[in-house]
Specification:
With 676 residues, the protein is α+β, with helices and mostly antiparallel strands. 16% of the residues lie in helices and 35% in strands. The protein has twelve helices and 40 strands. It is globular.
């Protein structure tokens, strides 16, 4: 799709999946702004990212900077104005074919060149004022940066693929937790590498978040250790760059963990998120804190109902914070000395905050708009004036979407004294004479919100097909403070469904909506809700469950997040009433609604065994001829918790809508062999 083209045909799912997606943005010296833009390749086999230069005045069209088949990502400006990024593109100056991601530098004029590479690849984290780069890499046990290549070659030649586990975890989302050790490395401007953590094991820095002080003197990083009961705890460590000395600055304990360390530009402050440990009575609560690095009392930032999703420091010394808020989002400015908070942007969900000088850029999204790069006018000036309501100046970039196939409206209902809201999408042309069938979608998490555009679960594809879609934010949704996060804990589907159903029943009183034709859809926690709802009501004409939990006694032990699940819910023998009431498989015999199960084989958060067991329970219990069974199972053999490959997303979206068409609208049966 050309950069200036605006997409408007939501009936064309394949074209929808080829819309460019702006996934990150970075601000740099002299006002430069660069965006990372992902697009489907020719065959729909993958998304590939490139970097684009944006006009900070919002006048000129975007200009593509990189073009490799491997793609480029994670843009970050160096102090000299050059652009750093990661890519597995081949090095024209190298002797070997590039197989792992290296860090590259694109000068203001000239061609990109490799700054540094390692056998385990490099992930770019931060850059100091002198151009020193902080990155992570992986190293085989017992190897060093100098000997890792030889050790990897020996393992590859021997075709050794075994993993020796000594504790939990053993999986994470979509990949095995192997015996590779993650190291923090410093890269000098000339490409010289220095290993900051040469003796680290396999656990401490896996999936670490880290930051480099602007003067290059220290690194703040998460530091994870195993503890009893199959659990891990994550602290914050400070590493002195000159000596390599490491000390636990914020140690975790049985009640608290930490994440997201970010050092202020003057090195005086460290912003972190403190997380409480979930229990059977209380979920995990996040707290934004600012700690003086030299010691002294912390500043606990009161962000109100906002659920923090990210933050970055400005050169002026304030902290910019993004988060979910009331089924939308906001950007706050925080004074680190006293924690005073001012809203500078709202009316959308903001991400990828980047600040350089007095310029602040971000990505802004809402349910009707995919992520667009915006310049937030006067991050400091707005803080001084105390003004909110600003949504920023949109910068021209690929991926424009216009002319939605329906209307978007905020709706709410009173449920036992609590206002439960959500977004209602209604197709153009729906009327009392031709009311639209209605879908209820329940979001995942359960700590999540229907507040932003989704490429994986886009309601406008269903709206273009004639459906109205209700997107509620019930109990345990983000953006409603700690009280909202904990309402319905520990993962009570009856509480969530009651709130969704009351809101659903209220919107169904509208003349333009058809209460006689309905479907319910959900993924992850929403898939768990779909499975539980299927066994507790027959009010829907069709149910679609993706990555849904089915047998909780099984799932809680096989998920990659087993420690947290078992800590909160315990064993079925000691918490029998909860498991009996809320594990969907106990109500399998009650299911009469046609169910479409979809699941990825590489999903380790909700293992494929959940779908396999549910499918057996449905098929084996069907009391009619096999050809009359209404249930279906779409297995995605190379996908994980999400359907990410464009070609598979085309099949998934088409199948889901065809299944709903068949059972909600009386359409043609989905073929025994899918033609798409």
């Amino acid at each position: 799709m050309p950069a200036a083209t605006s997409f408007d045909d939501f009936t064309d799912i394949e074209a929808f999946l080829r819309i460019p997606r702006v996934t990150a943005v970075a601000a740099g010296p002299t006002g430069r702004v660069v965006a990372q833009v992902a697009e489907s390749d020719e065959h729909g086999s993958k998304l590939c990212s490139a970097l684009w230069e944006l006009d900070p005045t919002g006048q000129e069209p975007a200009r593509r900077l990189t073009f490799s088949a491997k793609g480029e990502s994670n843009p970050l400006f160096a102090p000299d104005g050059s652009l750093l990024f990661t890519s597995a593109r081949p090095d024209p100056q190298g002797e070997d074919e590039q197989e792992t991601s290296a860090i590259w530098r694109l000068p203001t004029t000239g061609e990109a060149s490799v700054v540094a590479t390692t056998p385990g690849g490099l992930d770019l984290l931060a850059v100091a004022d002198d151009g020193t780069i902080l990155a992570t890499t992986t190293v085989l046990p017992g190897a060093t940066l100098d000997t890792d290549a030889e050790a990897r070659k020996a393992r590859k030649d021997a075709k050794r693929t075994t993993i020796w586990h000594t504790g939990m975890p053993v999986r994470f989302w979509d990949h095995e937790v192997d015996d590779l050790c993650t190291h923090l490395v410093l890269i000098a401007p000339d490409g010289d590498l220095h290993d900051l953590t040469p003796a680290v094991g396999t656990v401490p820095l896996r999936n670490a978040s880290a930051d480099l002080a602007p003067d290059g003197s220290a690194v703040a990083s998460t530091w994870t250790e195993r503890v009893r009961g199959g659990e891990t705890r994550t602290s914050i460590a400070l590493i002195d760059v000159a000596t390599g000395e490491r000390r636990l600055f914020l140690p975790a304990d049985q009640d608290t963990q930490y994440g997201g360390p970010a050092l202020s530009r003057d090195g005086r402050y460290l912003a972190v998120t403190r997380y409480t440990i979930a229990t059977p009575t209380d979920t995990t609560y996040p707290f934004l804190e600012i700690h003086p690095v030299a010691g002294g009392p912390k500043v606990a930032v009161d962000v109100g109902d906002l659920t923090v999703t990210g933050y970055t420091w400005t050169e002026a010394g304030t902290l910019l914070v993004t988060g979910d808020l009331h089924s939308s989002g906001a950007v706050l400015v925080v004074d680190p000395d006293d924690g005073q908070v001012v809203t500078i942007a709202d009316g959308g969900v903001y991400a990828s905050l980047s600040a350089c000088g007095d310029q602040v850029v971000a990505l802004r999204s809402d349910v009707a708009t995919p992520a667009r790069p915006v310049l937030l006018a006067g991050g400091e000036g707005a803080a001084a004036s105390g003004t909110g309501g600003n949504q920023g100046l949109e910068l021209p970039a690929p991926g424009l979407v216009s002319d939605l196939p329906g209307t978007l409206e905020w709706v709410s209902a009173d449920v036992d004294g609590i206002q439960v809201g959500g977004w209602l999408c209604v197709p153009h042309g729906a009327s009392a004479d031709e009311p639209a069938p209605v879908m209820l979608w329940v979001h995942g998490g359960p700590h999540g919100s229907y507040n932003a555009w989704s490429w994986r679960w886009c309601p406008w594809l269903a709206v273009a097909r004639g459906y109205a879609v209700l997107l509620p934010d019930p109990a345990m949704s983000t953006g409603y403070g700690h009280t909202g996060l904990n309402r319905g804990w520990p993962r009570r589907p009856d509480v969530v469904y009651r709130e969704c159903e009351v809101l659903f029943d209220q919107v169904l009183t509208r003349a333009e909506l058809d209460e006689r034709r309905t479907a319910m859809l959900g993924a992850s926690f929403g898939g768990f809700m779909a499975n539980w709802i299927a066994g507790h009501t027959d009010r829907f004409d069709a149910i679609v469950t993706h990555a849904g939990l089915w047998a909780l006694d099984q799932q809680h032990r096989t998920t990659d997040a087993a420690a947290g699940k078992m800590r909160v819910h315990g064993h079925e023998e000691t918490n029998a009433d909860w498991y009996r009431a809320f594990s969907p498989h106990h109500a399998a015999a009650n299911i009469t609604t046609p169910v479409l199960i979809t699941h990825g084989n590489r999903d380790y958060r909700v293992p494929i065994s959940e779908a396999l067991r549910m499918w057996w329970d449905l098929v084996s219990a069907w009391d009619g001829e096999p050809e009359t069974m209404p249930h279906r199972f779409l297995q995605l053999t190379d996908e994980n918790h999400w359907v990410l490959t464009p070609a598979n997303a085309l099949t998934w979206n088409t199948t889901v809508l065809a299944f709903c068409d068949q059972h909600v609208r009386g359409g043609e049966p989905v073929p025994e062999t899918l033609p798409w």
